[in-house]
Design brief:
The chain folds into two domains: 117 residues, NIF3 (NGG1p interacting factor 3)-like (Udp-n-acetylmuramoylalanyl-d-glutamate--2,6- Diaminopimelate Ligase, Chain: A, domain 1); 113 residues, Udp-n-acetylmuramoylalanyl-d-glutamate--2,6- Diaminopimelate Ligase, Chain: A, domain 1 (3-Layer(aba) Sandwich), CATH 3.40.1390.30. It has nine helices and eleven strands. The relative contact order is 0.17.
């Protein structure tokens, strides 16, 4: 067991949430207070009604997520916002969210863990997003585009959507998990021949083809399960907690 405040202080420092900028309105850190001590943590990609209800059923005191409840101006507490908060209050479950601080973390970050899962080691960083420089990880490689796609399928659970805009043999791969299709040009400018992310807009097909870079879309959800699992496991080890992962894939 551990005091919730002690856990929050540890997470804030470990993830460096005070120093890492994020999307406008993103709230990193403790979003909803809850009871102490904490004995069980539920990890999930998204703070949704389904994951909140699962955390309550499993008797967790803390729901640790990548995508939190709040993403902009304060919301009126009505409709689904009310239902989500009421479920949290009724079960006395706290919510801690780590978005960009979890994506870019050098140990439990989504980008680093996905690269390692693919058998690749980061050589450097590239790209800027929301005022953060070096949001992506790039890796040296020596394999065919098809072989890389097979590795991505094995790690993420489904075959990626491939836009073969670049060479058939991969030498330099950039990785930014989630919805980073807007960073295709940044990957190209960094001298990469292949860019892996979760999803992107329609026009990114033409971006890839005209810039001459391969792009793989492996799913926003599928590319972002690794970090929150690793963070929960680290918490469990440090504070002697039980933990579990609530899997609610979106297929997107």
């Amino acid at each position: 067991m551990a005091d919730l405040r002690e856990i929050v202080e540890y997470l804030d420092e470990y993830l460096d949430v005070a120093s890492i900028p994020d999307a406008p309105g993103a709230r990193n850190g403790l979003q909803v207070d809850g009871r102490s001590p904490v004995e069980r943590v539920c990890a999930a990609v998204d703070a949704t009604q389904a994951t909140i209800d699962a955390a309550a059923r499993e008797g967790a005191q803390l729901l640790l997520v990548h995508h939190g409840l709040f993403w902009g101006d304060p919301l009126p507490v009505v409709g689904r916002t009310y239902r989500r908060l009421k479920a949290l209050f009724d079960a006395d479950v706290a919510v801690y969210a780590a978005h960009l601080p979890l994506d870019v973390h050098p140990e439990v970050g989504n980008n680093v863990l996905l690269s390692r899962g693919l058998g690749l080691e980061g050589e450097g960083r590239f790209g800027a997003w929301a005022g953060f420089e070096g949001v992506g990880v790039w890796c040296a490689a020596d394999l065919s585009l098809d072989a890389l796609a097979e590795r991505v399928r094995d790690v993420c659970g489904e075959a990626p959507r491939v836009i073969p805009g670049g060479p058939p043999h991969v030498r330099r791969v950039g990785i930014v998990t989630g919805g980073a299709g807007s960073l295709i040009a940044a990957a190209h400018d960094a001298g990469l021949d292949t860019f892996l992310t979760g999803e992107g807009a329609h026009h990114t097909f033409h971006d890839a083809v005209e810039l001459g870079i391969n792009v793989m879309y492996a799913g926003h959800y599928a590319t972002e399960t690794l970090g929150v699992k690793a963070l929960a496991a680290r918490l469990a080890d440090r504070f002697d907690l039980a933990w579990g992962f609530v899997d609610r894939p979106t297929g997107l």
